């Protein structure tokens, strides 16, 4: 996996946005639109997520990841491994565990070539799931998630709309597994 900062953005959308509003700051102007989460994991999301996905037949480990800017990765070679960077803060590790669990649930059966061809969509889906599931569990990941989603979607809101049903279903699945009362609570509030 690559961090968005290691890729070259398609600039047509950014150029169009600059024409519409020359004073606008767009995501490609930022050094990194995603800001690493700081702090602890008081809701124990990391451990609960690891327990959930391990029960689904995946292995999860914390390892040093070479200087790639990658916070974690999910294998697509059938080994069913999730690796979370060992040097992440507790808050970032929890959010990353949700992100990689979303990849495991949504993208494990995708052929590697298809994954590469549709990488942006897969990243938008996984981070959207992490953002929504974390929110359902009472944790705000917007400092990281909004920039990450904006970067991988390249400002194309259609991709977010197109993936919304799958994202919500997967986020609900994860949130319900981590806290069965979550769906009841959110349904009562609706």
Record field, number of beta strands: 3
Total number of helical segments? 8
Detail the poorly predicted runs.
1-10, 24-28, 185-190
The termini sit apart by 37 Å
Strand content: 5-15%
User: How would you spell out the order of helices and strands?
Assistant: HHEEEHHHHHH
- Tell me the overall shape: globular
Short description:
55% of the residues lie in helices and 7% in strands.
Walk me through this protein's architecture:
The protein has helices at residues 12-20, 45-55, 90-107, 112-117, 119-136, 142-153, 157-178, 181-189; strands at residues 59-63, 72-74, 81-85. The protein is mainly alpha-helical and 190 residues long. The protein has a three-stranded mixed beta sheet with strand order 1-3-2. A hairpin with a 6-residue loop joins strand 2 (72-74) and strand 3 (81-85). Helix 3 crosses helix 7. The N and C termini lie far apart (37 Å). Mean pLDDT is 83; it is low at 1-10, 24-28 and 185-190.
């Amino acid at each position: 996996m690559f961090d968005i900062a290691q890729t070259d953005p398609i600039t047509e959308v950014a150029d169009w946005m600059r024409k519409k509003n020359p004073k606008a700051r767009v995501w490609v102007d930022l050094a990194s639109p995603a800001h690493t989460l700081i702090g602890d994991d008081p809701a124990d999301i990391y451990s609960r997520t690891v327990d959930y996905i391990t029960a689904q037949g995946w292995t999860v480990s914390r390892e040093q990841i070479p200087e790639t800017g990658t916070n974690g990765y999910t294998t697509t070679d059938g080994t069913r491994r999730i690796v979370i960077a060992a040097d992440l803060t507790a808050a970032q590790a929890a959010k990353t565990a949700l992100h990689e669990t979303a990849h495991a649930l949504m993208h494990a059966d995708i052929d590697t070539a298809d994954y590469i061809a549709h990488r942006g969509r897969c990243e938008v889906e996984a981070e959207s799931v992490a953002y929504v599931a974390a929110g359902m569990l009472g944790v705000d990941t917007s400092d990281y998630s909004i920039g990450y989603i904006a970067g991988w979607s390249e400002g194309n809101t259609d991709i977010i709309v197109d993936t919304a049903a799958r994202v919500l279903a997967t986020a609900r699945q994860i949130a319900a597994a981590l806290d069965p009362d979550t769906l009841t609570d959110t349904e009562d509030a609706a």
